[in-house]
Amino acid sequence: MNRSREILTKSKVLIVEDDRGLGEMLQEEIVDAGLQARRVDTAEEALSVAASWLPDLIVSDLRLPGADGLALMRRIQTDMPENMPDVLIITAFGSVAKAVESLKAGAEDFLTKPINLEHFMLTTHRILEKRMLRKEIKQMKGLLDGGDTFHGMVGRSRPMLTLFQQIRQIAKADGPVLIIGESGTGKELVARAIHRESKGRDKPFLAVNCAGIPEHLLESEFFGHKAGAFTGAGKPRQGLFAEAENGTLLLDEISEMPLALQAKFLRVLQDGKVRPVGSNHEQQVNVRILASTHCDLEQRVKAHQFREDLFYRLETFPLRVPPLRERDEDIDLLVAAFLTKQAFAAGKNIRGLSERAQEMLHQYPFPGNVRELQNVIERAVVFCQNKEIRPEHLPARIQKHTVQNNQGIDRQLMNAIQTTYDDLPSLEQVEQHYIRYVVDKLKGNKRRAATVLGIARRTLYRRLDETENAETDREPQHDSN
User: Fold this and answer.
1) Contact at 8 Å (CB) between 141 and 154?
2) Could you give the CA distance from residue 281 to residue 90 in angstroms, rounded to a whole number?
3) I need a surface site. Which of 65, 101, 111, 374 has the fewest CB within 10 A?
4) Residues 306 and 262: beta-carbon distance below 8 Å
5) Is the domain of 222 the same as that of 314?
6) In this predicted model, what pLDDT tens digit does every residue of 207-217 receive, in sequence order?
7) Residues ≥6 apart with Cβ < 8 Å to 436
8) Does the residue 462 lie in any domain?
9) How many folded domains does the chain comprise?
10) Residue 372 maps to which CATH number?
11) Residue 204 sits in the same domain as residue 255
12) How many CA atoms lie less than 13 Å away from 392 in the CB half-sphere?
């Protein structure tokens, strides 16, 4: 049973129909489809049942004893604003105008008598699926709007919350910042967050990749040039420092900056002055300098590939961006953000990932970090033709990693057992080892471990306690004498 089918079976449908035969027939159809259903005769009964049972859909005849279906719907809207069910109106052919009025008042749809049962069930499922989609979109937005985003970065894990706090503090200062992190971790997002938190947030933010500009043009790119300064310099040009005046300049992959230019760049940091190529005059600039790298600059210094004095000048405020493997807690948040964006762009009604696909993402180390995860979700959306992303929609490298990972379980588990026991272990002992193996493999994430093991989290905690007690009992007892 797929995920959307599982959710629909939990849906509740309340039928309000004074024609007992028709009402019981509709109830029987709904129950046969695997949904929950109740039936009442009047609007007054419907209000009482709805208040306690909280149905997802009310199927109501327009003509009822006492209050009609339209009056019932308006009362429901008033009495149940937080848990308001959808409404499907049933009407005789001669009351179509009244049914249209009910649509304007908020009903999802209407059907005319005599009821075509197949059409009735298709309409019921469509309304419930649309309701389910609205809920899931709201939940996804709740994930992303509930304090888990910071200037475009998504995270609620401890490493990310620490990073957000460091950004807020560093942004208030004026000194250079060195942003260190693996490729794909979001170093430019960090730089933009610093700029937006700073007092120069309304001024320019410029980013330049030091590895993407030919070496002979770097000096001109940064400092500008006079007309005729070199071949092809027909017009004067102000450099990036002048363009970013009073704002922020990000030097991405600064480790790729040539040594000769590093010396000139150090002077700018110290004096706040630049000299355009071909000019005899310096000009004062006021720019906040941010630099980023995925390299170990200290090792580059030792290898004489990066100036030591420049390194220490940049390291006034160092910031480390954590890799994705250190923030497993954020994977579901990131998936929700990427999936919402990509599915909307593709015009697809994809509501999430299957449990297995989700588990595979948590097991994969993501060497390409957040950028790789984003690409994985974008690819999965393209290949997904149903309402959830499944393992076969994920790249082969992720599927292969999971298979290899699982193949190692038997060997590691049996090695652990054989080094602990002389005889063959009991089933309980094997279970204890496997539980501990899964918890360790998931780096202590007990919520994920309980999902993998297929047990309640409370049961997992109890089993872990039993394992620890068993290990304590096996420890040799020393005679105090």
Assistant:
1) no
2) 84
3) 65
4) yes
5) yes
6) 999 888 877 77
7) 464, 467
8) no
9) 3
10) 1.10.8.60
11) yes
12) 4
> Do strands 317-320 and 177-180 pair parallel, antiparallel, or not at all (unpaired)?
parallel
Residue with tokens 């040009």: 237
Please tell me the pTM assigned to this model. 0.59
Cα separation, 46 vs 50, in Å, equals 6
Radius of gyration of the chain (CA): 32
In whole angstroms, what is the distance from residue 160 CA to residue 168 CA? Answer: 12
Question: Domain span at residue 122?
Answer: 3-144
Residue 291's H or E segment, with its range, is strand 288-293
Q: Which of 76, 110, 144 represents a domain boundary (last residue)?
A: 144
Residues of the chain with pLDDT below 70 are 1-9, 93-94, 136-147, 228-229, 231-234, 402-425, 467-481
- Assess contact for 350 and 384: CB atoms under 8 A: yes
> What is residue 450's predicted lDDT score, i.e. its pLDDT?
79
Tokens 């501990």 sit at which residue?
A: 436
pLDDT tens across 347-392, in order? 888 888 988 898 889 889 999 999 999 999 999 999 999 889 999 9
List the beta bridge partners of residue 60: 16, 89
Tell me if 38 is assigned to some domain.
yes
Q: The domain that contains 82 carries what CATH number?
A: 3.40.50.2300
User: Helix, strand or coil for residue 186?
Assistant: coil
> Tokens 């995920």 correspond to what residue?
3
